[in-house]
Every structure is written in C-alpha cells, then in structure tokens.
Amino acid sequence: MDRLLLAGSAALAAATLALHPRPFPLLVPLAAAALAVPVLAAAARRWPAAAPLRDLQAMLHLAVLFSLCGPVLAVGTSARWDAALAAADLRLFGALPERWRGLGGRPGWLVDLSSAAYFSYYLLPPALVAGLWRDGRRAELDRLLLAMALTLLLSYGGYFALPATGPRVAPADADRLLGGGAPSRALRAFLTLAEVNLLDAFPSGHTALSLVLLHRGWRLFAAWRVPLALVVGGIVFSTVYLSLHYVVDLAAGALLAAAVPFLLPPLERLLSRPPAPR
Length: 278
Prior knowledge:
By secondary structure, this protein is mostly helical. It has helices at about 1-20, 25-45, 50-75, 80-95, 95-100, 110-120, 125-135, 140-160, 170-180, 180-195, 205-220, 225-240, 245-270. The chain has two domains: about 1-80; about 80-278, no CATH class. It contains 13 helices and no strands.
C-alpha cells in the first residue's frame, strides 16, 4: 500500500512538473502527503495502536491526489472529451441517458433520494474499513485498502487520458433544472466545496470504486450484502440521474472494477517483495 501511494504521488508530481506552469505550490501538499506515508508506517510498526491512523492517512492521501489532479488538468490540458463522450452515449445507448435523467418526471423525493445515495459514496469506504477494524481483520483490511488505491489511481489515469467534465449543470441553473429539496441543495453545496477536480467524468470513479467495494464487502460481510447492494445500486443510479456522468462513463467504470480482481494479485506480489539488501 505504501509503495503504491508513493508511486501514485511520484506520477502526479511528474505530470505536475510537465504540465503546470507553476508547479511548486501544488508540489508542497503532494510532498507533505508523500512524507506522511513512511512516517506513519514507522509509527505503526513501533506502536500498533497507530495503525488506524495509517489507514486513515491512506484514504486521505487518495483524496489529496484526486484534488491535486484538478488544477493540473485544468491548466495543463486543452483537450476536452465531452462532445465525444456525449456522442458515444447517443451511439451506444440511444435514448437511455435522457430517459434515465428524466425518470418519473424527476419528482423531488427521487432527486433527494438520489442525492443521499450519491453522498453515501463518501461514507462507504470508511464504513467497511471500520467494520474490519472492529473485527481485527488486519490482512483483509490491507487488501481492501490496496484494492481501493488501485481502483482510484487507475481512475485518475483515465482523467488525464480523456479529461471531461461530464453533463454537469451550471450551479446557477441547478435548482431549476435538477430539482429536489434541501438534501439536494446540501449535496450540491458539498460537491462545490469538496470536488476541486471537475475533469473527473471518464471513467466514473464512483461506479468503479463502489463496485469494487461491493465485490470485496460481499465476501467480507455476509450480513451486509443486501444493504450494501442497495447502497451501491443507488450510487450508480444517481451518477447519471443527477447529471454528473455520461452512461459511457459508468460502463468504463464497471470495466475497470471488473479488471481490479485480476490485477490485484500480481500487483500485491510485486509490491510485497522485500527491499534489496544494501
């Protein structure tokens, strides 16, 4: 896990130096996040009670990388793939995307329910991690975090390959076009503050990570299977219903999630090799 986080940080640092005209203000928080990896690793080895802090840092590290991708993409890339992705939606799925977004005439209760489902994406990883903490299942927790990191880092690579904003509605028009009540307005305000990176449409990281967590959680927590499936289904539905993703983004995210179980074992073997003796 530590090696994968540091590799992701190094890749983003290289992209920042290559693409951004003023890279150093972005490299400072990136360096701080990278420095925290060996510091907390050493602390967890010396004091086992610090292991939860290390796990929390891993999740925060991935969030930092996501946020720092935003300014690099916004300034360092000129191509935008929204027109191509919208055309792919029309060619592959026909009227499905528009029917999906207009389902049921967009009643306020369904918009609010979708907003709650979308927000649950941010609660799902900590919930699974906390469940494994509670049960003392250290090996399963390490594999879960590694799967999360691999999924998100591959998603971030997709943002650089095909930067796109998705079918987002302008904030000034969101209440009128998207509808919903207080829960929906609260979600939109939260996303304005939390999602610094707006070029994150393809692939859908929400879809990819949610499906990976469903796959892992289905095996790890038998009692959670039904609620977990309902939550993940709501997250995937909400990404299109709230005009945050094209359907083709979801398809790419699902393919990415399907690849992770096959990529994880060789990656784990590679990253688990002991360092060569000096």
